[in-house]
Amino acid sequence: MSWVLCVAAALPAGAAASAVADSLMRELDDVIACRDMYLAEKEAQLDSLEQAVRTAADDRGHFDALVHLYEAYHSFNVDSAYSISLRQEALARRIGDPVLLTNARLNRAELLSATGMYHETLAIMDSVRLADLPDYLHPYYYHIKRTVYGRMADYAAFGPEREQYDRLTRMYRDSIMAANAPNTLAHVVTKADCLNVKGHPGEAVRLLKAFMDSAALSEHERAICAWTLSEAYGILGDRVSQKEQLLVSSIADMRSSVREYVSLRQLALMLYEDGDLDRAYSFMNIAVDDAAKCNARQRIVELNSSYPKINGIYVDTVRTQKRRLEWTIVIITVLSLVLLASLLYVRKQMSRIARARKETEEANRRLEEMAGRLKASNAALSDANSSIAEISELKEVYIGRYMDQCMVYIEKLDTYRKSIGKLLKTGKSDELKELVKSTVLTDDELKMFYEQFDRTFLRLFPTFVEDLNNLLLPEEAIVPKRAGSLNTELRIFALIRLGITDSDKIAKFLRYSLTTIYNYRTKVRNKARGDRSLLEAEVMKIGRARRPQ
Question: pLDDT for 124-153, tens place per residue?
């Protein structure tokens, strides 16, 4: 965001605020697009904590591991967190530690409050004696009391009860501030909340901004601070800053993979009011889906209460669109009448040239048919000429090679005959037998024969390897071991290019079994870039375009 802040500093206040909000909105869109990645990280964290629970060395370590697992599930899945609180309570009873037992029961009370079970929450809280709690549990005790009475005040149907719950909420809010050190998150957020309630949102803004600038906050803590700060800006009537803080809070909520939150829902409502209906609808769906997966019934109730407002905005939008549509229909009707008159005039003018155009089109059609036939005839003639030229060149080259090779073989046979004659004259029958049994001469001759074939073929088709690979998938290219030679796969398709397509003939030429040749041909066809059945037909065209026509 640094570049946005630099640009914002050089812009007027309204333009700067808009630039920051637009940048944050793009960041939120990116974070939501990557939400599966954040959820996967959350699942990995939960698996690691579950493993720590299973491998705890003793009951105390087991309880501590359950505490960490509860904290991870608390804002992610209420059902799982509630199950963990029951496991904590059972383990605390087995250990026989009243403090651990109370801690587990406080966890359960917090979850019951989140699901709207206020009577059960207060039943647990009233059974806990504050004097019996260690100091470190006092803030947690006050937090649960303040939360449950605050929620009861929000949903109280009558004034006297609401006033009573508001008074209890203020009392426990003061207790939270007294029980937490001044520079802690709980103290600062609670104090800012208190300032907002008392009508001093400006002081709340200064307090929270100073704290957020100086403290090293986690994503979840930043989300909490930004949400409280957005409330302060809302009371001040600074809608732009309120939207920015809701964006900051929503981004942090998405990154920390919590499912129990308020910011994204409130942001969706603001976007509905601003007319950004698509994004608002998307954000509201995410909030509803997360609340359902978390089983945070309190948030589900709040979301349900938001729909009438959204529906009202939607209805107003539909009415506006309907009025625009009505005007559009009127304009379209007038334009349609003008167009109709124009069409009648054009039709009258066009009727005069219709017959001439039809005759012209018929003549053109006949001309195109004749041109097509001529083009086909020329193409066939060109292919025939190309094939004749190619066959002539192949015959010329291979006849020359055949005569040269025959002379070489005659000389080698004569040399071989003389060698056998010398061995017979000298009576070296053992050496003669070894010479007759040895396949070295045959192997060497085959090797030289294939090398001669490779050189001759690549002289005729110098780009054969490159052209064949162009017919194959890029990752399946066939590369010979050395330049100027062919491997078995390339020799098979070189023979196919020369018109030898029978696998039996190819097998005899290369001294392989028929099955091996078939497997090689199938393997290469499976590498084809396009239709496999057309590969060999395309191979037959290699080099043809470069030959004289």
Answer: 999 998 888 999 999 999 999 999 998 888
CA distance 458 to 486: 9
The ranges assigned to domains in the chain are: 59-160, 439-539
Task: Give the H/E segment covering residue 258.
Answer: none
* This prediction's pTM: 0.55
Residue 128 near residue 145 (C-beta atoms within 8 A): no
Q: Is residue 124 within 8 Å of residue 116, measured between CB atoms?
A: no
Token look-up 């669109």 returns: 321
Q: How many other CB atoms sit within 10 Å of the CB of residue 217?
A: 16
Pairwise CA distance, residues 271 & 278, whole Å: 9
* Of residues 512, 483, 491, 498, the one with CA closest to residue 542: 498
Sorted by sequence, the CB contacts under 8 Å of residue 155 that are 6+ apart come out as none
SS (H, E, C) 455-476: HHHHHHCCCHHHHHHHCECHHH
- Whether residue 245 contacts residue 233, with contact meaning beta carbons closer than 8 Å, is answered with yes
Which residues make beta-bridge pairs with 472? 528
Q: Around Cβ 255, how many Cβ atoms within 10 Å?
A: 18
- What percentage of the chain carries pLDDT values higher than 90? 31
